[in-house]
Design a protein that fits this description.
By secondary structure, the protein is of the alpha/beta class. It has helices at residues 9-15, 41-50, 68-81, 99-111, 160-166, 168-190, 204-212, 247-260, 304-309; strands at 5-6, 26-27, 87-93, 113-121, 125-130, 134-139, 142-148, 151-154, 197-200, 216-220, 231-237, 261-271, 280-286, 291-297. The chain folds into 2 domains: 5-52 and 125-198, no CATH class; 68-123 and 205-309, 3-Layer(aba) Sandwich (Rossmann fold). Helix 3 packs across helix 4 (99-111). It is elongated, with a radius of gyration of 21 Å.
Amino acid sequence: MLKTGITSVSELREKGFNSRWGRSKSVSISLYPEILNEPDADRLAERILLHFMDDRGAFKRTYTARFDDFDKTVCAFLKGNSPAQKSLIVQDVGVSDGRTACDFFEELDSSLSVISFFASDYNSCLDVIESSFTRLTLRASRLLEVVWGPFVFYLAGKGEHEFRKRYPLSVLIRWYALHFPAKRLLRDYHAGKIRSREILLFSPRALRLASKDKRFFLEEHNILEPLKRQSHVVRAMNLLNPSYFTREEFSQVLRNIHIALYEDGFLITGSNQDAGTSVQGGIYCKTSSGFKEIRRFGNGSSIAQIIENFKL
Ligand SMILES: C[S@@+](CC[C@H](N)C(=O)[O-])C[C@H]1O[C@@H](n2cnc3c(N)ncnc32)[C@H](O)[C@@H]1O
């Protein structure tokens, strides 16, 4: 009938992620920055992100050491074929919470000179505003989550039908929370009376690396938009898959990558399942009007045909 959520780190430590009936609890995404200093921050961050869907319906899910062998092979390739005398600017796109980007950066850094490495993902920045009883999480002004007292209401993502069926009382409380306290807080925010704080949905390891190493950057980026700079390498792992983009969108994505690569730069792409499983993908060299596959892994990229047929 009634569903409360987890609204503080101490509550999370005490009660965990599942109810005593084994159902997963609604843990507020606004807790993300607060768990970063916990001893098991990586695990907690991963669990919080597991429930958090982006605007395109994707979850930020990835694993450490997902591509160890692949990364080693790619680094050896770049060492032998680098267009920039082994000094590279790299853009790793669709990195989720950035764990695999850290792995790749460290592998590259052990054998090549990395000038800068930009790891980006879609929808990785959120804003939080709060007053005493109410906490709102927004993405580009769109309200995603309302915390009101002990309640956590996710407004984006799936599960609405199930929520309405199981928790009719919570539906009423959500209505009240949205129409009164949340509305009031939003009004104060838009009037400039309250400031927001930003949350970055990257893993603790990626955030630590970005603050420690001035060559490693984390940013938000939608690959359907032009990339922010040129680079020698664009890497897109578990991203160039038909489940994410239509054919027209692939043309846009490939155009953006082509424009972002220096002459003779490389597109590295591939997909796999869990950590350490074999990668199906390829290394493509930028040509004047498209891409040429110069190295194939497994059965190749699931969109190998689209990449090869792409013309600027
Ligand atoms: C399966 S994860 C892959 C993460 C990481 N590259 C890896 O291989 O472990 C796919 C990621 O693509 C991101 N994504 C989906 N659409 C995107 C877009 N239009 N632009 C950038 N990233 C996108 C999602 O946010 C998600 O984090």
